[in-house]
Amino acid sequence: MACKNCDSKAKLYKELDALIQEHKGSREALMPVMQGAQGLFGYLPKDVQILIAEGLDLKLSDVYGVATFYSQFTLEPQGENVISVCMGTACYVKGAQLVLDELKKELKVSEGKTTPDGKFTLNATRCLGACGLAPVMMINDEVYGRLSANMIPGIIAKY
Amino acid sequence: MVNLKIDGKDVSVAEGTKVIEAARMANITVPSLCYLKGINEIGSCRVCVVEVKGMRTLQASCVLPVSEGMEVFTNTAKVRASRKTSMELILSDHDRQCLTCVRNQNCELQTLSEELGIGEIRYEGEQILRAKDLSSASIVRDQNKCILCRRCVAVCQNVQKVGVIEATNRGFNTTIEPAFEMNIADVACINCGQCVVSCPVGALSEKSEIDEVWDAISDSTKQVIVQPAPAVRVALGEEFGMPIGTVVTGKLVSALRDIGFDQIFDTNFGADLTIIEEGYELINRIKNGGKLPMITSCSPGWIKYCEHQYPEFTENLSSCKSPHQMVGAMIKSYYAEKNNIDPKNIVVVSIMPCTAKKFEANRPEMVDSKGIKDVDYVLTTRELARMIKQAGIDFVKLPEGEFDPMFGESTGAAAIFGATGGVMEAALRTVADVLTGQDLQNIDYEAVRGSYSGVKEATVNIGGRDFRVAVAHGTGNAKALLDDIKAGKANYDFIEIMGCPGGCITGGGQPIVPSRVRAVEDVFKARSQAIYSIDKGLPKRKSHQNVSVMNLYKDYLGEPNGHKAHELLHTHYEKRGLYKD
Question: Do residue A10 and residue A59 come from a single domain?
């Protein structure tokens, strides 16, 4: 029986290849191709960065330099659910650190990392633009506002 | 021409000139750190700021082009305060271990700190301590001394087209390193050392083998034999305050003798030997339908570049070892036999203008079946200068010494190996005589000399046959040449490639010339004039006229490219990937 996971992986690489072919040899397309690749894989593993570098006539060090410069790019596989805790000024003043600490405790994972079961990735982010609801976090596309530490276990339990 | 005023002086310069260079023409040195003319012009360190009338903010003069009627002020209170603040911030995240630094007294940061009168550093911020990268046989990276000027990145990416280091991460965490925090030995670094000679501070240096060499000299059971490369003798004097382009061959030999080496042979002898082997290899390839174009193999930086980036060309590489490896192999075989010494008790030290030679000497192909290395240690020109200083030798006052006879004779053809085009010219001088059976007198092949063009081409008629030849220096230029060959746009019989721009005389192991001197002096030109003056001054200018080399064939090696020559003087290459898994 064919490996289902492998099929989907092969499909991702096929899509990546199409994306690279579209921008073949064009160094200027680095950012959109990296964004596209991260959209496909959820992160930017080494082999993907190598394919991008070779396709766009760049060096791996160029791609890696950009990948580590922008916080939107990640080199770590992302969990099924990505939690982004806003650490902007308003949220920070309203106790975002306590929310983040509670999440670390609840999920037993450090900032920027993914739980061993692959269910959650915990990120701290810059301002999410919902200061009126501070402190705020997002889980995937869902926004949670006016948080306090004691609300965290209940929210996590929903996923 | 554009007319402007700098500190009240009228200056007239070509359009497009940057203000920092225009100031130099008015005898004003604007301090700078990240700027390396023609290589890194990014205005990032902010040390070269100047005031410009009508502009609200200070301008980085290394990226600011001149304009008509511009009024520039390079030494105002505002400028001085800004430079000082920038310097203090740079120094606040620098380890400041000057006393024990390899660049002590030849450090641009140290010089500027003195010139700008940095008396104290007001910003005692956090410092990130990073482990040194000691993985490479050639190059050491110490990020604690790095000031993030990106000169190394520019030369690696844009000039050499190797591109194995880049700025990674962001802000305070920024470092210059290979992707995925790999060690420099695990990426496609070619060990050329152009990053080292571009670095203003001690963040990049050669892997020193000075202590090992002193230990060998002190060991009474070892016979320690040294050989300097052609390019060393036209640059070493700079380390002792002599002008760029001074020929110091005799003093070099005397210094080596005073240091305590037992025999002083000459890599130039090996260069002549290389020409015989390589010349016959070329003739054989042409006669027997071998792989063409044949490409020279003297430059280990180029060899590793080829193995990583153009593995399809490794069969085009001449199988000849490089000259110092040939001399090493002859010392450990012929010399050892003649003098009845166990090669295990011989230590061969090469003095090279090159950091890649350290890697080359450690290649498994350069070790024989009994574990005997052709060359045990490689020192750069800079390391030799340090040893001379450590030994308390007054270099400038040394008498003119002579090489020892067995491998000490050399011709003008060997001397020019040090400059781009030299190996090609030396080979043509011999190949032309061999193929025509004459002693040709017109032997100055000017078309392959000089550094003005990255790729030089010529068609040379020898005995009625046209030889199409090309010369490239710097791997960035080699890439352009190889891409043209791959695309079918160019076709040659014989190609010389040197890994460093300009060839060995401007190699990664040569004395480091500060950026402000490089901006006004043509280092290549001065050193190459010295090289060609050696050639002109020698009675014999063709490798096959080297009597010691020809006797070596009669007495020991047999025929050029013969069985024994192949065993001792030839090598092979590997195809390397770009990334380690």
Answer: yes
Structure tokens given for A14 = 């096929």
pLDDT tens for residues B492-547? 999 999 999 999 999 999 999 999 999 999 999 999 999 999 999 999 999 999 99
Question: pTM here?
Answer: 0.93
SS3 assignment, position A139: strand
User: Which residues on chain B place their C-beta less than 8 Å from a C-beta of chain A?
Assistant: 157, 163-170, 178-180, 187, 578-579
Name the domain count of chain A. Answer: 2
Judge: A59–B169 Cβ closer than 8 Å, yes or no. no
Q: Test A60 with B179 for CB contact under 8 angstroms.
A: yes
Question: Is residue A50 domain-shared with residue A109, that is, in the same domain?
Answer: no
Nearest by Cα to A38 from A83, A5, A76: A76
Q: Report yes or no on A108 lying in a domain.
A: yes
Task: Assess whether A110 and A51 both reside in one domain.
Answer: no
Sign of CA dihedral B239, B243, B246, B251: negative
For A44, the closest chain B residue by CA position comes to B180
Chosen domain end from A20, A40, A69? A69
In a domain, A76, yes or no: no
Q: Do A62 and A106 lie in a common domain?
A: no
Minimal CA separation from B481 to chain A, in Å: 17
Give the residue numbers spanning the domain of A96. 81-157
Q: Does B486 participate in catalysis according to the annotation?
A: no
CATH code, domain carrying A85? 3.40.30.10
A62 and A94 in a single domain? The answer is no
Chain B: nearest CA to A158, how far in angstroms? 35
Calpha distance B503→B192 (Å, rounded): 11
Distance from CA of B462 to the nearest CA of A (A): 41
pLDDT tens-place string over residues B107-139: 999 999 999 999 899 998 888 899 999 999 999
Regarding whether A89 and A29 lie in a shared domain, the answer is no
Q: Tokens 């305590």 belong to which residue?
A: B260
Alpha-carbon span B1 to B265, nearest angstrom: 54
Q: Are residues A35 and A90 in the same domain?
A: no
Grouping H, G, I as helix, E, B as strand and the rest as coil, residue B379 is strand
Beta carbons of B168 and A60 less than 8 Å apart: no
- pLDDT 10s digits, B254-294: 999 999 999 999 999 999 999 999 999 999 999 999 999 99
Q: Do residues B92 and B125 make contact, with C-beta atoms less than 8 angstroms apart?
A: yes
Is B357 annotated as catalytic? yes
Report yes or no for ipTM above 0.95.
no
Residues of B in contact with A62 (CB under 8 A): 157, 163, 166
Whether B98 is a known active-site residue: answer no
Evaluate if residue A71 carries a pLDDT over 70. yes
